[in-house]
Write a structure and sequence with these properties.
Blueprint lengths: L5 E6 L9 E2 L2 E2 H18 L4 E3 L9 H11 L6 E6 L9
Length: 92
């Protein structure tokens, strides 16, 4: 029997925290785009899912944790996927 209650998809960074920046790319934008895609796909598959943020808003660490814990009432049968994308250096 599957005890999964749902999936929380966390788009890392956001708002005034851009995360890693490389050229015109900002981690906060990429994680939001990836997270929205994952959320939509999970829902298409019939899996209950929630996003920690769905726009370019600041979500301080303490607030992010509170939100994650509140989304499914701190149920242990929830999967949390936290999206982050690091900026790599150039090979020389």
């Amino acid at each position: 029997m599957n005890n999964l209650v749902g999936v929380i998809v966390d788009a890392g960074h956001g708002g005034n925290d851009p995360g890693a920046v490389a050229g015109n790319l900002k981690e906060k934008d990429l994680t939001l785009k990836a997270s929205k895609y994952m959320y939509d796909r999970l829902r298409e598959l019939g899996i209950d899912a929630e996003l920690t943020r769905d726009s370019d808003t600041s979500l301080p660490k303490s607030e992010r944790i509170k939100k994650v814990l509140s989304l499914y009432n701190n149920n242990p049968n929830v999967i949390l996927v936290a999206n982050h994308i690091n900026a790599g250096g150039q090979d020389t």
